[in-house]
Design a protein that fits this description.
The strands form five sheets. Strands 11, 12, 13, 14, 15, 18, 21, 22 and 23 form a nine-stranded antiparallel sheet that branches. This protein has seven helices and 23 strands. The protein is of the alpha+beta class and 428 residues long. Strand 14 (282-291) and strand 15 form a beta hairpin. The protein has helices spanning 4-25, 151-164, 191-195, 233-243, 256-264, 324-331, 368-371; strands at residues 33-38, 46-50, 57-63, 71-78, 85-88, 92-94, 100-107, 117-125, 130-132, 136-141, 173-182, 201-212, 222-227, 282-291, 298-299, 302-304, 314-316, 319-323, 336-343, 349-355, 393-397, 402-409, 418-425. Helices cover 17% and strands 34% of the residues.
Length: 428
């Protein structure tokens, strides 16, 4: 027979057991371990960084709670397909008992941005209880040596793509090019011997900085090469020197106008030549490069004049020059200097004061336009046999990702045309 007293005691104790068991199952929930990002001297979750910056941005990482075991944080950069930025110290391992760490963000110095790009730092965690409190945004600004496109230029580029199906943006920025120069074998000595160490061909690997020209309109995409156009800056400076300060006849002390202007500029002959290399600067630009949206051709030949003959135009590649020695001479153009005019009866050199500007048309110029692209590009002015003339032309191909130019070049002492081919690789 069941003991009624014992049964009653058991029934009274049972709810206590059940309550105690349930209470043990309902443990206090584990708090979220929020991860906070910060950058010194930056607030609001964003930091500016220049694409040409070499120093890193240090991102400090702070957890809300110390870790009970080692955990890993893996960072990633969103909108960074071209790898404009990179992370150093990723993934990050924070040890048990720790709650701090840091990573470094570097620019890869690709110099490809023409407008600001916002790149977002995100994270994933080995512990599901960890959570990023706020993502961090890097406002990446274009390199200081790249022109930033204006809002109006950005609008025009977008319209070109809509109207014509051409993505002009791919042709802008810092682009690589390969240049082939074939020198003429005509003359005695031939240009290849006089100006290219006896070799017919010279190949140059270069880069240019290209932007949308101020001449561009809603209907005409026009480019401007603002640095090392056609990859030829150093080549043109070399040819300029070989026509003047490194040319035997021009440097002859008996050649009165060059002698007078170089003396006025503070130069003396060294081993028969004027050593200006490394002492002067020579920079070029090329504007008016018009893309035809209808036939994939590029039109780039224009009117070229000289300082001495400003109304005498020829058709050529219209490079613009900034030559420090010529700039100095222009500031002195109203100065009178003694110029040798011959000898007296006793054989002494006679001098006559002359305005520097009056010598510009008498071998006394250092205007690059006087010496470079000397002959017109629209016809063969040398008529060598076989002809070394090549008609200028250019085209673009977005499928192949290239745009190319070909044109003749000569300088004042050339005996024929050099043939120049330039091929640019577009950005992807």
């Amino acid at each position: 027979m069941v003991d009624t007293k014992k049964l009653l005691t058991l029934l009274m104790a049972l709810p206590l057991v059940i309550f105690t068991s349930c209470n043990n199952d309902e443990q206090e929930p584990k708090p979220r371990n929020y991860v906070q990002l910060s950058v010194a001297e930056s607030t609001g979750g964003s930091t500016s960084i220049g694409e040409d910056t070499t120093e890193p941005v240090i991102v400090d990482v702070l957890l809300a709670h110390t870790l009970e075991k080692d955990e890993t944080i893996t960072f990633l950069l969103q909108d960074n397909e071209e790898e404009i930025l990179r992370i150093e110290g990723n993934p990050m391992v924070i040890k048990k008992g720790g709650k701090r760490g840091s990573i470094k963000i570097y620019s890869n110095n690709k110099n490809i941005l023409l407008v600001q790009r916002n790149i977002t730092l995100k994270a994933s965690f080995s512990d599901n209880n960890m959570e990023l409190q706020k993502e961090w945004v890097f406002n990446v600004k274009p390199s200081t040596n790249l022109p930033q496109l204006t809002t109006e230029q950005q609008r025009m580029i977008a319209d070109y793509k809509t109207k014509y199906g051409i993505d002009v943006y791919r042709m802008l920025g810092k682009l690589n090019c390969q240049v082939t120069i074939k020198f003429s074998s005509a003359g005695d000595p031939a240009d290849k011997d006089a100006y290219n160490n006896g070799k017919v061909e010279r190949i140059i690997d270069g880069t240019s900085i290209i932007t949308l020209s101020q001449k561009a309109t809603a209907d005409k995409p026009i480019l401007k090469m603002i640095n090392n156009p056609m990859g030829l800056n150093d080549f043109l400076y070399e040819m300029m020197r070989k026509m003047t300060t490194e040319q035997e006849e021009w440097c002859n002390p008996g050649n009165p106008q060059p002698s007078a202007i170089m003396k006025a500029l503070g130069y003396v002959l060294e081993n028969g030549f004027y050593n200006i290399k490394g002492k002067e600067t020579f920079e070029t630009q090329l504007d008016g490069i018009e893309l035809s949206p209808f036939d994939k051709n590029i039109y780039f030949v224009g009117d070229k004049a000289t300082y001495a003959y400003p109304d005498d135009f020829i058709k050529a590649v219209p490079f613009e020059y900034d030559f420090s020695l010529w700039n100095k001479l222009l500031t002195m153009k109203d100065k009178e200097v003694p110029v040798a005019t011959g000898e007296d009866e006793q054989g002494n050199i006679k001098y006559e004061n002359m305005l520097i500007s009056d010598m510009f048309s008498q071998a006394g110029s250092l205007d690059p336009r006087t010496f470079l692209f000397y002959s017109g590009n629209d016809s063969d002015e040398y008529k060598n046999k076989p002809s070394d003339y090549i008609a200028p032309g250019a085209s673009y191909d977005f499928d192949k990702g290239v745009f190319s130019f070909v044109f003749p070049f000569d300088a004042s002492l050339f005996s024929g045309y050099a043939q120049i081919t330039v091929t640019y690789t577009m950005r992807k």
